[in-house]
Amino acid sequence: EAQVTQNPRYLITVTGKKLTVTCSQNMNHEYMSWYRQDPGLGLRQIYYSMNVEVTDKGDVPEGYKVSRKEKRNFPLILESPSPNQTSLYFCASSSYRVSRGDTQYFGPGTRLTVL
Amino acid sequence: AQKVTQAQTEISVVEKEDVTLDCVYETRDTTYYLFWYKQPPSGELVFLIRRNSFDEQNEISGRYSWNFQKSTSSFNFTITASQVVDSAVYFCALSANQAGTALIFGKGTTLSVSS
């Protein structure tokens, strides 16, 4: 089954404790993105990747890192999480740029709480 | 500027009623794409439909239909004979060259269908 998976689905952590949210897709997609969803703000892009070893900042990259060492995986790293990073996070993938009309498929979401 | 406006924050209907969710978009691109996603209470984002700017034909899929009108920059979504399982947050989204690699999401409309 074609899908985007994320782990963990739920995470409660404390300020400053490094964490990684994994994302994997089995559709051989080139483009992958991370979004965060916050009440009243909708979904905003954090980082995206156009292919292996090619990543760039989205609209809200501060406090996050990503890497793309393999085509299927695109982990999101919070090196020193803070309470304002409490949010619902989505990983997404598509065959090519969304500006060319491709559909982004989203993972199930990771609900992160930083105390 | 790229923007998507979903003016209806919340809608409540009774089962079997028809309901229309409004979406108004802004873009200066002549080629762009519009999407609808559904977010049920479980939290995942489910792709519903994609439309390109050159195709103004209305689309019907079962109880769902979409009305795309370039003249009013609208891409409205109608659910006919609503069911309790339709209760969710619905997002309209835009992709265009000037929007870069991100989908531009509206703030979402929460639909509650009661029995």
How many DSSP E strands of chain B?
A: 12
H-E string of chain B: EEEEEEEEEEEE
Q: Any low-confidence stretches of chain B, pLDDT <50, length ≥5?
A: none
Query: What amount of the residues of chain B lies in strands?
Result: over 45%
Helix content of chain A: under 10%
Overall body shape of chain A = globular
N→C terminal distance of chain B: 41 Å
Mean pLDDT of chain B: 92
The percentage helix of chain B is under 10%
Bin the strand percentage of chain A.
over 45%
Q: Poorly predicted ranges of chain A (pLDDT <50, ≥5 residues)?
A: none
Q: Rg of chain A from C-alpha positions?
A: 13 Å
What string gives the helices and strands of chain A in order? EEEEEEEEEEE
Instruction: Tell me which oligomeric state these chains represent.
Output: heterodimer
Largest sheet of chain A: 7 strands, mixed
Rg of chain B computed from alpha carbons, rounded to a whole number of angstroms? 14 Å
User: Distance N terminus to C terminus of chain A?
Assistant: 36 Å
Largest sheet of chain B: 6 strands, mixed
Describe the global form of chain B.
Answer: globular
Biggest interface? A-B, 29 and 22 residues
Structural class of chain B: mainly beta
